[in-house]
Design brief:
globular; about 15% helix; alpha+beta; four-stranded antiparallel beta sheet; about 25% strand; 16-stranded mixed beta sheet
Amino acid sequence: MAMQTSGRNKVGSVRGVLDEGRLRCPKGRNLLLAVLLVGMAMLPSARAQEQADDQPDPPARVARIAVLNGQASFEPASVNEFSPAEINYPMTTGDRLYTGSDVTAEVQTGQLAARLGEQTDFTVVAMTDTLAQFGLAAGSLHLRSFGLEPGETVELDTPNVAFTVLEPGDLRVDVDPNQNVSYVRVFSGRVQVNGVGYSQVLESGSVVGFSGSPVQQEALGEVQADGLDTFSFQRDQQYEQAAQAENGYLNDGTVGGEDLAQYGDWSQDDQYGAVWYPSGVAADWQPYQVGHWTWVAPWGWTWVGAEPWGFAPFHYGRWARFGPRWGWIPGPRMVRPVWAPALVVFVGGSNVTAWFPLGPREVYSPWYHTSPLYMNRVNVTNLWVRDTRNLHTIYNQRTVYAGFSGGLEGRQFAYRDRATAMAQQAFASGRSVRGNQVAFRPADAQLLPHPMVTPQPGMMNRGRAVAVPARPARPVLDMPARTGNGPKPGTLANPTAGNGQMYPSNPGARPTPGGGTLPVQPRLGQMQNGSGTHPVAAPSPVRAPVSGQEGAPASAVAPQPVQPQQNQQSQHVVEPHPGSNLQLHPIHPGGQPEQLSTGAARHLEQPMPSPQPRDLVNRSTPPENRPSFDSQRQAIQATDPGRPLSPQQMDSLRRNQPVQREVQREAAPHPQAQQPHPSPAPRSSAQPHR
């Protein structure tokens, strides 16, 4: 059960932490945590049995957009159109992020940080409890890992090879789609490389390029660091400083915990232990008011905080009032917390949707389909417990913790009278809460199992994208990488002694970290042409017609040929190498046939034209893709307006079968759902917080 670490967890924090079977004990706590370990070691088997008997639960973690230095665009898994990216937006299986010129960004989850350079096309191929799989179709990325959970796989897929992290560390990968080559520099740790006819282990210090099919290995020389390396180093320093200031109050799996030290202060409370107080907020500030709601399957209604620190305190733990101030109470640091889309209770009335934050020890009742064990875990891991011996008692149970059974009716909620309300239309469209609040009397409101309104298209498309990739079609997965007749698995201690030849130098090459040179990446609006570059026109958007009704499942969208355009590069069809066992049948990251985008991307920058998406070589098999947002929305409206689809309903939608209504044990009586009506005027007293 030993956990692999990079020497110092989160770049310097040394904590006594137990994360569902992981033990790292400072002196004086070995006995207590060892006892906790015995009880909690039973959890994975209990969870697997519960899910086998009931239904798959949503993942316990997500990634989030942690840093944006410049313009970037986001494409959700179920929407084939880019919108401006925003801080604190959760990312899960199938989501895509693209950075514009002179932009750096970070996508973070738990013990992983993916740092993106400019013009980088990045996809979360899979995000589950045991698999963090990313895709890099073009651009540059630092994949920084600080630790690996027991049984966890971390993989980065590129057009040439798939990288699997064997030991935590830091690797940089550059993908040049024009040259069809991927470069890697292993700054620290160890990484497994798999491609067609290729398998190798790279040690720290390796600098290698990969091209072709079967894969050819190309050793590189020394190069200088660039802006992405500087950005990654600075983020490491920020993690180090945050870990010292945070003083071990948080579990390492708390996504976004690194932001708290910079934007608030920690204090010890006799009743609740460590409490974090945000600084710089308005006198009338309260949780879940500065931001907006969005829709992320399979959880459905999800809060996106607009505060720079607004991730961890809205998806873990509980809020409480301490005199005139709100303070956030994290869950026990001995257990890895389960991520929740928003820790609130929904209430409502005529044409109004409202919510209030859960207080200490108050039960969270998910509005999405879950097993009883999930409800136990999402509460226990996010409720602070004074006596840690209770954790052993709770985790040793195979059934639902008695304190979480029953409905919401009759329960006393500390902050029910502080509910925030919006008109249903504004809520369902994902508008900002600030300036859209309406007058509301919580005492007259009914507790709701979930909002009684179906999400509207505007919730998923929040504006015009400023930057889009050169290949607007989604990257596709090739097939699991195979070893064939390539080099036998082993350790490449000296990359210059590899089987490949030295990659030829390019007189116009830019420096890259760790050795050698990479070919020049032509800036947007230019393409290589013989002795130089010349400007090219942006391709016109191509919209694929949808057969049948609007919002039909992805399987109903027929692939459409892309028309050639003037100054466009010739279309290149990849063929299997003679004698290889590769069969090209591209699939979506979720496992469905690749289709052209049904939404036209807006080319405000001038990308190099390209007729087809970039294939990614993968080693792990990701989950199935999500059906389109439109098809989900129609099925939700027809079955149970406002409630996310269950896994079984999702499967029916993928297979173009009728979606049947499923009964979910609800925490509150289920009133009749309503269609959103025109929004009433916001109350005049509602002013934006500054």
